[in-house]
Amino acid sequence: MYHQNPISAPPSHSPYAYTHRPPALPAQGDNYHVGPESSPFYAITEAITKEAQAPNLLSIQAALGAMSLVLQDQVRVERPNDGASLPVSLIIIGVARSGERKSTVMNAYMEPIHAYWARERERTQKAKAQYDSRLTVWNKTRSKLMNDVSKADAARLRTKARKDSADLGAAALAYQQANDALQLHMEDKPTSPLPINIGILSDVTPQAISKFIKENHVRSLGIMTAEGEEFLSNGIKQQSSILNKGYSGEATNRYRAGEGEQSYDIPITTCIFVQPEVAHNAFSGPKNLMRATGTLARTLFAYPASTQGTRFLNKDEISVKKFVANLLQDDKSYQDTQKIKEKYCQWITKRLAHSSSASIEKMSLLTLKKEAQALWYQAFNECEMHMRPGNRYEAFTDHASKLPDQWLRVAAIIHSYNHATSGEISKETLFAAISLVNAFSDEFVRTFRPISNEEKDIFTLQGYIDRLRQHSRYLPRRYITSCGPLRPTARCNAALFTLSQQGHITLSECSTRNSQGRQARPITMIDLAPHSSPDYHAWKNALNHARSLNQR
Prior knowledge:
The chain is elongated and about 135 Å long. The strands form 4 sheets. A 5-stranded parallel beta sheet has the order 4-5-8-3-9, with helices on both faces. A 4-stranded mixed beta sheet has the order 2-1-10-11. Strands 12-14-13 form a 3-stranded antiparallel beta sheet. The chain is α/β, with parallel strands linked by helices. 54% of the residues lie in helices and 12% in strands.
């Protein structure tokens, strides 16, 4: 159930002004709300999710990334409290294992953008070739006319020096005619073809971003990839402020020896999907600059639950009647999906075409309706209170402080797709945006929350056991406590017990005797793969080997 927020009075800035109303900020772990089922944004994200059978949050991330890319040079949104104009650029990071269909989802949303870019690139290449040919001829003609002007001016000056009044008029006329011809030629200089305006990169170093922008004259840049390992390993961790500036719309003034001026002032949207191991290497550790510079705090982050193991194919029904009914139903569903995707492609193409023809100064400024403003103020104050000690965002104040702007950016994107790139954003759209951003915030907090020493021990030992599992199935506990990464033994035993409680391993006590044949302390054996079928032969060999070691 989603709360309604009737507003009858202007919002107050007091954090206690909303105690009589239902909360505007969803609770941690609440189900997220994409919008009404009849809304186009809900339709496209749901259609791609079902078609790819991928996690829904990945589909929503890719949709927001693609839409932000085509809107960020056309649309801005006004912040209610100070009237600041915010870009709709986003930084999006999705984490999913191999096989989660990250590329399938990303390609579904980026395909019309890539297709448009390819067509425009072919057009600009042909136009550039014609322009270069005309410019070559124009430059040669200019050189000849400048030479004619120089000769005519020299003749005029020589005539003037001789004080030959009879020829001075003719010399001056010849100079004026040559100069007029040059001026006419200068006005007829070939016009360079219009650039594509939008740039798309999947792998780039921080240094190459400014060079790419300058050389291609783009005014909207997207770093979009479903395989973000190369991008994250190419130095962006140390220079992530580039992404921050592109997100905030801040101009970058850059000058380098040997490169000259590399300044730019364009919005940048980043949408990358990575595997968990890549994310761990990129974002973990005490010297993680992407967290220190605030880049991670600005992200719409998701590490959703896997869909693998649930993506079943439908079997044919035995009954002919049921088979025909299902066939018609599937065909109708397929046709609906195609219509939804066609509408998305048409919207993307329209926005890209508008970007090619519109001036950068003619940007639409979206504002919130009065009821939406009240909802935003209420959610802002609730978010602020959650940053107090002992509350939800106590350890994530950098992240929480960015959420109010995120609500506005996401709301502006959803509004632009559902309605138009003008007008006022409704309370319902803002509510959906707050709900979505809250879901991403939950993912962020869950992934980056500070962990205890005990949890670190569990993760460390689990990684060690995962490596052992590649070569062995059964081992004595003594082996892991002696050769494993945790000391003292009590720490290792505590971590082993937790892993067994979670079902990652199984602990079994087995009786044994010493070399004199007397009852000795039981041996604790560990099954490293408890969910696999038992291997009695391997178990017996491992147990006998452990007993022989115990008798020494």
